[in-house]
Amino acid sequence: MKPGGQTKRPPTRTTGEAGPELEGLLLDSPRFLVAEIDNENRLARANRALELVSAAGAGELNGQPLGRFVHSRDYVELIEQLNLARRGEPARELEVCWESLDGRPCWVEWTFRLLGAGDARLLAMGVEITRQKQAEQRAEEMTAAGLHTLLTEVIESTPDVVALLRADERLVYLNWAGREMFGVSTDNLTHYSLNNLRPTETVELIQREGLPAAIREGYWSGEAVLQAAGGEEVPVSLVIVAHLSPAAEVEYFSLSARDIREARQLQTELRKARDELEQLVSERTTELFESRQVLQLVLDHIPQRVFWKGRDLRYLGANLPFLQDSGVESLEDLIGKEDFDLSWKANAELYRSDDLQVMESGIPKINYEEPQVREDGSHLWLRTSKIPLRNPQGEVFGVMGTYEDITQIKRAREQLAEKNEELMRSNADLEQFAYIASHDLQEPLRMVASFAQLLERRYKGTLNERGEKYIGYIVEGAFRMQQLINDLLTYSRVGTRGRSFGEVDCVQAVGQALFNLQVAIREAGAHVDVGMLPTVVADETQINQVFQNLIGNAIKFRGADPPEVRVWAEREEGAWRFAVRDNGIGIDPQYKERIFAIFQRLHGRDQYPGTGIGLAVCKKIVQRHGGRIWFDSTPGKGSTFYFTIPDAKEPK
Ligand code: ADP
Fold first, then answer.
1. Are 51 and 58 within 8 A, CB to CB?
2. Which of 90, 440, 554, 621 could staple 582 via S-S, CB 3.0–4.6 A?
3. First to last CA, the chain
4. Cis peptide before 199 (omega within 30 of 0)
5. Is any atom of ligand 1 closer than 6 Å to the C-beta of 594?
6. What does the buried/exposed string (b/e) look like for 538-552 if buried means 16 or more CB atoms within 10 Å of the residue's CB?
7. Which of 595, 603, 620, 630 to mutate to test the pocket of ligand 1 (most atoms within 8 A of CB)?
């Protein structure tokens, strides 16, 4: 330990001679202790200051061996330094305990140097540092004492129980936590020994295992139960340390015990939480497994084929119907295969390029039709959809596809289209035929009718009654036939002579119909009520004709009361629905189809005139506009005829 800065140090030099002035100065100095040491390590001479420190009279030190004054502990070190100095090597300051002749120790810091070259004598210069040394020692003691207090405070305030036992197991010290737990006070501590501890099992454990292990290895730890003063048993973790004397004998055992209830509680909770988690995980796994199974089950029982492939275009999975199509035995067989390995080798290239397109663009390809040729030579049509499969990060890792066999549907569709075309052709032929026939029939019929009339006029009175009756039949028949042929022409013209569609204000159309029907209205004393009517896109002449036929029938087929007719329109989705209601004789619902057929009538001509063409024409017109026609009726009470005109449709 270095002395403090209060003391002025002698100049230190390892070699070289101290000049005579310096020597004199040093010798006289009351502060520096100076001596000459001979080659046998004796004091050859000493200055006054050294004599005073050493409690020696003048000259009394001369010839005294150095070992006489230096504590044996420091002596070896001293001789080493002297030898170093003699060899001219750097020596350092040496603190030694210097004992005066009267046995009083003091502390001196010495430095040594050679008196002259080739000389074994040394000059020793020293400074007394006793006071500093004492201060240092006091400081050390004080620090040790302070630390002791601090440690005691720590031990007193810890919630752990800390006890110190003597080697004979008697209690020496018990900290606050321990005193609280066992209900003992500091005064009677020493009355207790390890044997007072409860339960006895713990005492036995400590004596049998803890103490021997602590003696053997210095340390033992384990778990035990301590019984508190109130009887409560507290589980603790116990640490025992053996403290040995310098002679390596056990002096004390220290025991520390930590309450582990909370830790155990935490552990239990932790274990419980872990168990719950495990339970949950296993349930979820089962659930997941089951839901996968269910999913596969569902997939296997739908007619739709489902498959999924990885980025490398190899199959990852599929449902049962797909497997059956593909010609492989099982799912295991399918996984890892490519389209080239399956029944539709011929189409593999096409399918794969679609897969790639879907995966690269990330855009699904939905409901497209594609061909399939199978190994057995069958040619099929499929309706397919493919969507990209993405992982949670959104990256495409594969493609999923579904398809259904639409070969039948496609065939049926083609057949239907063929049939429709055929039908349209034959319809057109028929219309053409009806038109030509009725048109060409008109001419000879007109001749028959006019000559029959001529015959009637010219030969009236020359024929007998029967002859006149017959001529009357011919005339009437010819007229009727003309009427029928006219009706037939009208009917066939609906398709062949229809005009192009334009905006038709239905209020005007109904107005025109009422104008044409004014005589009938007047004669029947009918009242026609017209509601709000829209403007539609249609063939104006034909719409007029529909209203005229329906309102005409409403008046014609009246009952005993004067006809009450109402015309109105209502919106329905994508169309206007028109209605013509009357209070007439009504129609038996069984005739709901029949009355719309050409020349179909429910009554004799003598009852209600007509040819049975009106509703057939209405139906044809409404159909040409893309609408439909029907009626509701209660026989004896009246009928309501409905027809729809869809919004802005192209003409047929
Ligand atoms: P026509 O009026 O020349 O007999 P239609 O084709 O217009 O021919 O009508 C066919 C048949 O439907 C009629 O003969 C009649 O029996 C029945 N009918 C049509 N409209 C009505 C109506 N408003 N009330 C009762 N019966 C009707």
1. yes
2. 554
3. 122
4. yes
5. no
6. bbbebbbbbbbbbbb
7. 595
Q: Is the peptide bond before 159 cis (omega within 30 degrees of 0)?
A: no
- What are the percentages of helix, strand and coil residues in the chain, rounded to 5? 45, 25, 30
Kindly state the tokens that stand for 602: 């429910």
102 Cβ partners below 8 Å, 6+ apart?
55
pLDDT tens column, 95-129:
898 998 888 888 898 888 887 766 778 888 888 88
Q: Does ligand 1 have an atom closer than 6 angstroms to the CB of 487?
A: no
> Does the C-beta of 585 come closer than 6 Å to ligand 1?
yes
**Which one-letter amino acid corresponds to residue 630?**
W
What does the angle CA 642 – CA 646 – CA 652 come to, to the nearest 5 degrees? 110
All structural domains of the chain, each given as residue ranges with its CATH number in brackets, are 20-130 (3.30.450.20), 144-259 (3.30.450.20), 275-405 (3.30.450.20), 411-496 (1.10.287.130), 502-646 (3.30.565.10)
Residue type at 486?
A: N
The total number of residues written for the chain in this structure: 652
Bridge partner list, 122 = 37, 114
How many angstroms does the Cα of residue 569 sit away from the middle of ligand 1?
21
Tell me if residue 11 falls in helix, strand or coil.
coil
Residue 610 Cβ inside 6 Å of ligand 1? The answer reads yes
Report how far ligand 1's centroid is from the alpha carbon of 497 (Å): 24
Contact 636, 624 (CB under 8 A): no
Closest ligand 1 atom, residue 617 Cα:
6
- What digits encode the pLDDT tens for the residues 191-203? 899 999 999 999 9
Hey, what are 445's tokens? Answer: 């019929």
Measured between alpha carbons, how far is 457 from 81 in angstroms, rounded to an integer? 180
Segment 302-358, tens digit of pLDDT: 888 999 999 999 999 898 889 989 989 898 999 999 999 999 999 999 999 999 999
Report d(CA 155, CA 177) in Å as an integer. 9
Q: What residue owns the CA closest to ligand 1's atom 11?
A: 601
Q: Which two three-digit tokens encode residue 30?
A: 């009351």
Asked whether 552 lines ligand 1 (CB < 6 A), one says no
Question: pLDDT band for position 411 (50/70/90)?
Answer: confident
Ligand 1 centroid–CA 434 distance in Å is 23
